[in-house]
Design brief:
This protein is an alpha/beta fold and 575 residues long. Among the domains are: 110 residues, Alpha-Beta Complex (Flavocytochrome C3, Chain A, domain 1), CATH 3.90.700; 111 residues, Up-down Bundle (Methane Monooxygenase Hydroxylase, Chain G, domain 1), CATH 1.20.58.100. Strands 1, 2, 6, 7, 8, 9, 16 and 17 form an eight-stranded mixed β-sheet that branches. Helix 1 packs parallel to helix 4, helix 1 runs parallel beside helix 11 and helix 2 crosses helix 3. It starts with a strand and ends in a 13-residue tail after the last strand.
């Protein structure tokens, strides 16, 4: 592996790849990936990418902006949301020109379908806004961008884990990485570093996320004295396969699928009478769990049915082939003839590393930037999703802000920014951390601690939250951290030591769980995906603000910063 590059991108999902495409040819850029690049979690995105193209029916970017602001429960920064929605049509057409094989209308235009929370005329009715490639949209976008990177000569380093940043008062100068195959540390200097490592859904027992999503970059940033923004907002997708969490895309409901309770009732009519099953994800997830709590789950159980039988076999195989396959393999049902058992599953983190609209990491409520350090994608918080992300806005976020981060890095480098080279004590600190873990011989085991953490977060800090439960979670997290200090590894080798990797990841998850719980305790209101049963109303007077969480000694300190409000004033959120 090279010892230095002009730009280093950590993460080979869509955000990182789009930034790399922007930089390729003008600077020496390398992409570091925890897994083989085309196994990054962006490939799991199924349903589509939102853009007001108007190919199926009239649409406008202003309507898209309104839906995104309203969907965020007015916590999204409207300057960033305007950039996202204005740029969406250009971004999608650019992907098409790169080779993304979108589905087509009879007239040959990019096909579009309805998706949750997307409406026309500022909320009057659902609109077809999601551009899609069957139900494998993320996969084909990621593969196309990877092809573009290979064509442009971008260097890839696969199976390297981020351990620390070379960060001092003058900015970011590089990264310390673990070569998983060799077990060696590699310190790489760079003039600009982009974090694009995705979310950390593995903090929960039931999740649609892959095993690699453990919040490595977010935890490292927190330890280095920088804040994390809005980490209390976690999206639970309404339709995961019961017991497994494997995602059944919202595209299924966009094509006409409906949710039904024990008596076959289409219950979403009670919760969102205008757009029903296409309400935003937070509303649908709570509705499902409310039906279950009140005894209307299937057979009185903990799940409901997603009924696609009215769509017909041709639509299911042409537009929802992967979903149909998942239902047959994982749920043991044929959606052509029978409903799919579903329940909410942890899906997406709205919060993350705070950035400007150009991906520059900021360190305080004033927006003071960290020179040479950038973030994009799910690990970042720009914040276009606020307290609840609309479906199909995540892929859009990745390509729009991945590109903007790439452009900002190129401008920074062209202006002489960044020097690289300085190492400080980051490598030695990482080496000591690894040595301590490798030598640990305690009686506790990492998988057992991780399972306890995941169950704790499911019980006390998921869809429904209370002061009592969160306070108990705070205490339990301290106990889990003590158990982690007594953990021992059975394998002490260097090469492909996945037990060591899981121990590193667990420490990251414990740090992030603490921030999530403290943020949820601080926010004594209900907004978007954060629902406090003891404070069920939204409180704009006290909490129309972003949280910024800092590691303060042995605990977490919460600060706030204002929400950017431009076009749309907060109103009651009705669907």
């Amino acid at each position: 592996m090279g010892r230095g590059h002009d730009a280093l991108i950590v993460g080979a999902g869509i955000a990182g790849l789009r930034a790399a495409v922007e930089l390729a040819g003008s600077v020496d850029v390398a992409v570091v990936s925890k897994v083989f690049p085309t196994r990054s979690h962006s490939g799991a995105a199924q349903g589509g990418i939102a853009a007001a193209l108007g190919n199926e029916e009239e649409d406008r970017w202003e309507w898209h902006m309104f839906d995104t602001v309203k969907g965020s429960d007015y916590l999204g920064d409207q300057d960033a949301i305007e950039i996202l929605t204005r740029d969406a049509p250009r971004a999608v057409l650019e992907l098409e020109h790169m080779g993304v094989p979108f589905n087509r209308t009879a007239a040959g235009k990019i096909a579009q379908r309805a998706f949750g929370g997307h409406t026309r005329e500022f909320g009057k009715a659902a609109v077809k806004r999601a551009c899609y490639a069957s139900d494998r949209t993320g996969r084909v976008i990621m593969d196309t961008l990877h092809d573009q990177c290979v064509k442009a000569g971008v260097r890839f380093y696969s199976e390297f884990t981020l351990l620390d940043l070379l960060l001092d008062r003058d900015g970011c100068r590089g990264a310390v990485l673990l070569d998983v195959a060799a077990g060696d540390l590699r310190t790489v200097s760079t003039r600009a570093l982009l974090l694009a490592t995705g979310g950390f859904g593995k903090i929960y027992k039931t999740t649609s996320n892959c095993f690699a999503n453990t919040g490595d970059a977010q935890a490292i940033v927190l330890r280095r004295g920088l804040p994390l923004e809005d980490l209390e907002f976690v999206q639970f997708h309404p339709t995961g396969v019961r017991g497994l969490g494997i995602l059944i895309s919202e595209a299924a409901r966009g094509e006409g699928g409906v949710l039904r309770g024990d008596q076959g009732e289409r219950f979403m009519e009670r919760y969102a009478p205008n757009i029903k099953d296409l309400a935003p994800r937070d509303i649908v997830a709570r509705a499902i769990l409310k039906e279950v709590r009140e005894g209307r789950g299937i057979g009185g159980g903990d799940y409901v049915h997603l009924d696609l039988t009215a769509l017909g076999e041709k639509v299911l195989l042409d537009r929802l082939w992967e979903i149909t396959s998942f239902a047959r393999i994982y749920a043991g049902v044929d959606p052509v003839r029978e409903p799919i058992p579903v329940q909410p599953t942890c899906h997406y983190m709205m919060g993350g590393i705070p950035t400007s609209v150009d991906g520059e990491v900021v360190r305080d409520p004033k927006g003071t930037r960290v020179p040479g350090l950038y973030a994009a994608g799910e690990c970042a918080c720009v914040s276009v999703h606020g307290s609840n992300r609309l479906g199909c806005n995540s892929l859009l976020d990745l390509v729009v802000f991945g590109r903007r981060a790439g452009k900002a890095i190129r401008s920074w480098l062209a202006g002489g920014g960044g020097s690289g080279g300085a190492r400080g004590d980051a490598e030695e600190r990482a080496r000591e951390r690894l040595a301590k873990l490798r030598e640990a011989d305690g009686e506790e085991k990492v998988p057992a601690i991780r399972r306890s953490l995941q169950q704790l977060m499911m019980n006390e800090c998921s869809v429904f939250r209370t002061e009592k439960g969160l306070t108990e979670a705070r205490k339990a997290l301290r106990e889990l951290r003590e158990r982690y200090g007594r953990a021992g590894l059975g394998y002490r080798g260097d090469r492909f030591n996945m037990e060591l990797q899981e121990a590193l990841e667990l420490e990251n998850l414990l740090d992030l769980a603490e921030v999530m719980v403290e943020g949820a305790l601080f926010r004594r209101e209900s907004r978007g995906a954060h629902y406090r049963e003891d404070f069920p109303d939204r409180d704009d007077d006290r909490f129309l603000a972003h949280t910024l969480a800092y590691r303060d000694g042995s605990g977490v300190r919460i600060d706030t910063k204002p929400v950017a409000i431009t076009r749309f004033q907060p109103k009651e959120r009705r669907y």
